[in-house]
Amino acid sequence: MLVTGAAGFIGSHTCVDLLTAGYRVIGVDNFVNSSPRALDRIREVAAGAADRLEFAEGDVRDVATLGKVFATTPVAAVVHFAARKAVGESVTMPVEYYDTNINATLRLVEVMREHGTRRLVFSSSCSIHGDVDVLPIQEDAPARPTNPYSRTKWMCEQILADLCAAEPGWHVMALRYFNPVGAHPSGLLGEDPRGIPNNLMPYLQQVAVGRREYLSVFGDDYPTPDGTGVRDYIHVMDLAEGHRAALEHIGDAAGFRAVNLGTGTGTSVRQLLDAFSAACGRPLPHRVVPRRAGDVAELVADPTHATAALGWRTRRGLDEMCRDAWEFQRRNPGGYDGAGA
Ligand code: NAD
Ligand code: WQD
Q1: Which residue positions does the secretion signal occupy (predicted)?
Q2: In this predicted model, what pLDDT tens digit does every residue of 17-55 receive, in sequence order?
Q3: Is 221 close to ligand 2, i.e. is its CB under 6 Å away?
Q4: pLDDT exceeding 90 applies to what percent of the chain?
């Protein structure tokens, strides 16, 4: 398997899952949003299987890098994680986001085609839907992306669907993740964002180790049971297993398919704050501040299709997500590189 973005949060956990399940993996990453140390950790966690991991440093938009990988290693399928993913940054740097996310996908499928590999699992996002009218969200809910990042994901899905329509023989699965959180239970691998975290769980993790003073709760006047935003948090190891299930089922049907990966359960900011406080053994400082622009009240997946298509379902609950995230942060308070921003 070729895994692009292998050193990133979801890529690194997926590499461990694939390696320990017996796959050979070649990773590609340019470390624009990750540390080379994540690769050492993958090898450490996957211990006995570490010799099945190869790695090539480079940019997925660089066809020479990709071409060399395909020329030297048999690639049965590709899992394409490499992308830029910060919603706020995408609003201020749209050109960089369109360039990375769209061009990496285009170059990748061109090189895949050249080498006869036509099986691709693509990282998409529940955020392609924008604000939804019907919950839980099914795969055929309207796509109304509200920011450049989410538009790149929706555009890539359309490019891949057009490719499949034009060229029979491709098998492409777009996995639409809800809110991935947590860490490998070893505490060796986890989420290590650069700079100030944008997302709730990594921010809470950094409050818990004293790198941030307090959590800002973005609004408590939403039409939800406790007034705070509700999301479908999914343990990153469940997500990793979802990718393995996708690879195992990608041959079942030709063409393009989209599959939601979520739990089907909504959790509010307050509930997550309480669960994380329990995991780290102390109440965490927080303040309610106004809503964050662009946020919606509630997003929850309908995972029925994933279970039917992939034979997969999530196994880990909120307490496990918080326990594992805390274990990673406790053992790596400054992240992989120890510095911490
Ligand atoms: P991440 O930033 O931790 O990982 C992405 C990896 O890709 C990083 O290691 C980065 O260095 C690498 N990368 C970026 N551009 C590259 C390029 N041009 N060439 C080579 N490597 C490159 O992000 P993540 O959370 O692991 O997300 C993985 C994928 O899942 C992304 O496509 C993201 O958009 C998608 N996704 C993430 C979430 C989430 O909340 N984490 C939710 C939905 C979808
Ligand atoms: C979750 C909840 C916030 C931070 C984003 C992307 C989406 C996907 C996942 C990539 C919301 C609240 C947050 C904080 C808070 N990524 N919050 N204080 O916005 O659901 O989704 O990540 O595809 O595309 O949009 O995730 O973790 O930022 O927010 O109160 O400091 O936590 O308002 O209700 P979000 P999030």
Answers
A1: none
A2: 999 999 999 999 999 999 999 999 999 999 999 999 999
A3: no
A4: 98
Is the shortest distance between the CB of 199 and ligand 2 below 6 Å? yes
Higher-scoring residue by pLDDT: 303, 294? 303
The answer to whether residue 337 is domain-embedded is no
Whether 22 contacts 51, CB under 8 Å: no
Instruction: State the catalytic residue, choosing from 23, 97, 98, 149.
Output: 149
User: How far, in Å, CA of 154 to CA of 160, rounded?
Assistant: 10
Q: What is the ipTM for the molecules in this complex? A: 0.99
| pLDDT band at 286; cut points 50, 70, 90 | very high
Q: φ and ψ at 264, to 5 degrees?
A: 90, 0
Residue 336: inside a domain, yes or no?
Answer: no
pLDDT tens digits, residue range 201-217? 999 999 999 999 999 99
Look at residue 338 and tell me if it is in a domain: no
Within a domain: 341: no
Q: Please tell me whether residue 156 adopts helix, strand or coil conformation.
A: helix
Q: Which domain holds residue 44?
A: 2-331
What average pLDDT does the segment 312-325 reach?
A: 98
Distance CA 336, CA 71 (A): 32
Confirm or reject: Cβ of 157 under 6 Å from ligand 1. Answer: no
Residue type, 123: S
Rounded CA-CA distance 190/290 in Å is 29
Tell whether the model's pLDDT for residue 341 goes beyond 60: no
SS3 assignment, position 96: helix
**Mean pLDDT value across the chain:** 97
DSSP state, residue 185: T
Distance from Cα 230 to the centre of ligand 2, integer Å: 10
Most informative mutation of 10, 97, 177, 239 for ligand 1 (most atoms within 8 A of CB): 10
CATH number of the structural domain spanning residue 139: 3.40.50.720
Contacts of 20 (CB under 8 A, 6+ apart): 46, 49
